[in-house]
Amino acid sequence: AVEPNTVKVEENLLEGSSSRSSEGCEIFAIPEPAEELPKVSVVKRGSLKNVWDKKHSCMFCFKNVNKMSTHLQRVHKKESPVKRVMAMAKGSYERRKAWAELLNQGDFKHNYKVLKSGSGQLIPRYRTKNKSAEDCVVCSFCKGLYGKSLLYVHYKTCSQRKGTANARGRKGEAVRQGSMLMPLPSNVSEGFFSHVVARMQKDDVTRIILNDSLIVKFGERKFCATECYTASYISTRIRELGRLLKVVRLKTDMKVSTLTQALHPENLDLIIQSVRELAEFNEENHHFRKSSLALRLGHSIKKCASVLRAEAIKIGDEELVEQAKRFDSLFSGNWFDYITEIQSTSKTVFNQQTQKKQNVEDKPKMRKKMKRQPWSEDEINAVKRHLSDCIVTGMVPKKAQAMKAVAAEPCLRSRSWHNVKDYVYNLIKKTKEK
Ligand SMILES: [Zn+2]
Ligand SMILES: [Zn+2]
């Protein structure tokens, strides 16, 4: 195990934040070399012995300090929070609790900075041998960083939480509350984050997606066309792209690490190879085991190329415009010939797909795959507000009615009109049975 070197961390952090400071357009420029890709790790426990090497980040000067209360009293005694604690009786429970609170605040500020900049080491409340950044979440009361699986244990004893109104929460409430406090990646809009990203599994694919501005932009565009796509449909599509990028990264040893880089005329073969690998292409009979995945990826890549071109025009990067344009024409020529000639079965699917609108074709498929999402109180109330007539009269709502309800209520955004209709249908059935 590598012994964490906290001084190094601070250097990394500063470098990371300065190179990413001018947000917005620069994310679409060709990114930095692979070694400097943002990385977030968690400080690990060094040895089995209880060594006093655990450092915390000071909330005032961001220095890494061993004994926080001593440091605060020596260096920051003029700050009012420190003054307040110093006035408390020495050795009292109150005083200890207040010191812990200041300590957590410093660590929280540090952790927030690390997550926002995307590089550095997180300081957890308790160190373990192996904890990844995805496993950690902040306690929404004391701001300490805990492992997700153990946050509920901490919740029972959290000193800041005692005596607050919501003594008992729903299952998973602690983690949900905590993740709201963590910073959003700077390139993700809030609505897209809460409806699509927050529901996704927190794994390496999700991290790849969030670190790739082009995939995020692609997802946001789908999300803005909300009428036709459900949140789970969008997340499936962007996860496919994330998996593709993961394969591309592995194949090139991280030399090509973003989708923007991958969509280069030179990398066309690389993309075709990667899609073949993902969709399990059989060299012998020239057959994709997952032909629909290959087709969907083809459409997504084409769409991404046009998104890239639009964004490049927006920021006035002539070179990137040219790159995207050339890739698009090459890809459209090669790829679709390639796929359709090789595989007659997918050709029929392909033709169907181009003839019909995608949403019409894909929706029923997606519905089967969708995980059951329990209806929240807000959602139920929203449905009742709009479709009370249907519920009272026992008439199942028509498509137009259901769509109107979905469009009117922001909280129903993640539901399709099918979901709403089915919900009302079940509600009517239930009342009839009584
Ligand atoms: Zn300090
Ligand atoms: Zn807590």
Automatic annotation (TrEMBL):
Q: Output the superkingdom of the source species.
A: Eukaryota
Organism from which the protein derives: Plakobranchus ocellatus
Region annotation (Disordered) maps to 353-374
In Swiss-Prot or TrEMBL terms, this protein is called Sodium/calcium exchanger 1-like
